[in-house]
Amino acid sequence: MKKIIPLLAIALATASLTKAQMTIKTLPYPQTKKGDITDTYFGTAVADPYRWQEDDRAEDTKAWVIAENKVTQDYLGQIPFREDIRKRLEVLWNYEKYSAPFKEGKYTYFYKNDGLQSQSVLYRQLGEGKPEVLLDPTKFSKDGTTSLAGINFSKDGSLAAYQISEGGSDWRKVIVIKTADKSIVGDTLINVKFSGISWYKNEGFYYSSYDKPRAGSELAGLTQYHKLYFHKLGTSQAEDKMIFGGDVTPRRYIGGDVTEDERYLVISAATSTTGNELYIKDLSVPNSPIVNIVDNFEKEHHVIDNVGSKLYIFTNLNAPNYRLVTVDAANAKPANWKDLIAETQNVLGISTGGGKIFAEYLKDATSLVKQYDMNGKFEHDIALPSVGTAGSFGAKKHETETYYSFTSYIYPSTIFKYDIASGKSTVYKKSGVQFNPELYESKQVFYPSKDGTRVPMILTYKKGTVLNGTNPTMLYAYGGFSISLTPGFSTSNIVLLEHGGIYAVPNLRGGGEYGEKWHLAGTKMQKQNVFDDFIAAAQYLIDNKYTAKEHLAISGGSNGGLLVGAVMAQRPDLCKVAFPAVGVMDMLRYNKFTAGAGWAYDYGTAEDSKEMFEYLYKYSPYHAIKPADYPATMVTTADHDDRVVPAHSFKFASRLQEMQKGAAPVLIRIETKAGHGAGKSTAQVINEQADKWAFMFQNIGVKY
Questions:
Q1: How far apart are CA 276 and CA 534, in angstroms?
Q2: Domain map of the chain by residue range?
Q3: Are the C-beta atoms of 202 and 231 separated by less than 8 Å?
Q4: Residues designated catalytic
Q5: Could you give the angle at which helices 682-700 and 82-93 cross, rounded to 10 degrees?
Q6: Is the dihedral of CA 529, 530, 534, 537 positive or negative?
Q7: Per-residue pLDDT at 308 exceeds 50
Q8: Is the pTM of this model over 0.85?
């Protein structure tokens, strides 16, 4: 039952901040209005006084955003070294950045950013000739907030379809060009979301999308059933044929991929972010049916290659750490699968290229890579420069070389050229960032969580750092959706490290670092394990005198934002500063917006059962915040975030400001013309990072 009464108007604060006010209890927060909305779950009434903020189009919500951003910018503007940090980051960012090259048709393509360009530019090169620009996203919009969100080429490289994202939205447009002269082919496709693009010959391509929500709710409206379409070149989008999904086969996530030899269309269908059905269609046979291979959503299965009718399927069926199997397409049910690369104690990832298989293993969240032939015969290990993360292996079958990247917390991302026949790696592009790895160290430790589970954590800091409990420390984590946090260099983190700081990243349960068992141990009614692992990481740092509460900041984004919010509610005394970013904060209503219902495999929903409701209600950050002395907090979100809608952060920040009983500031920084994270302009990224470090340093007392 819901009861709604008229809401009070927002009273905008007019007082400006002084330096003295930065440390006192009361900041001039907007007098945020409260409503009288109550939902009832299994007999329990749950108040939702800030429900009105879910309507991001409403004038009162817009006014609140303006008022909160004013408070935040007034506060940040009083930090004397904020601009110095921004300038330092600008200097650090100002170097040429390259992607690993990839070959399409007769050209080699790569992305490059001259340093401070708003977006990276896509170049192409013919042999040893001079590179030329194919697409320049810096010219897509005046303010640099329209980004290139992906590009896919036809097999001969003569056609390309690229996606653009405006303001960081997950809704995309697709534009087709002839690569010879860059001329546009046909009309622009619109309203495409969560989609790959896979060409079939030069006739057209497969893509996926949802029905667009009703007018006015495009960013927050529920996206329910995905549809796989085929777009035939020269026809309008309205004529595109639905291949799979919709009301006929209702699935939340659908992807269609054509194999490299263009013989098969492989369809993956799922109702959540974990587990998928698998289908196949033989494109070499006219009017062939779509044939089911896996008919349930219990495990993960992906066709990664084929040789004739022999399919190579990457799966965690009966293998929590994954395995690679083969089967004939004519009789491809799981009962007929045969191991090609069996499961091991380390989590497996797979890519192919040059007629070889690259087995990319995770050992305690770091990379080991082995090369096999297509019959599963081991050939050799691939020598990596140190302990870290290797990625981007893969090439077309006829190629003799590939490129991969390697990075760690103190190893700036470097691109290597790899000769597939000899197994020899050579440096192709070094990073130009101003950073001397010899001055720093990065080491892995293991600590016990509350229930005794052994959890790994990597700590990075200056050599010679004295462990006296006074080091400014950033503890960052994620812990969900089987996502693995592996070592990766961050230009932004240099600011922390060069000021004697420690960057700590634990690999919490809920992630994929130790396979599906590790993931499941942090889902649904095991989610508290994730929070316990994070709290135990902080306690390890304190007990071993890396830092102390007064010098500790915690941070996480998206599911990691949920993590930070939940830990703040459970342990407001744990740290000095908190950064919950684009977080899932209302665990009772997350499934009501955009694709949120797809996260139920990890979270469960309040409608599932009384037990599940009570579990979610207990840790839901928005609901769990009670009057207390909370750390200095800067919530971050963006107005175009249509994955984790900004209402989560709006409501959480409003309640946190209401419940803050200590003197520490509670701010919300709301980026405009930005989304969940991807596609932000370089200036937006630098400004956000500068504000983060300025806020942390100010509240921890770091001398800049």
A1: 30
A2: 344-432, 435-700
A3: no
A4: 558, 676
A5: 140
A6: positive
A7: yes
A8: yes
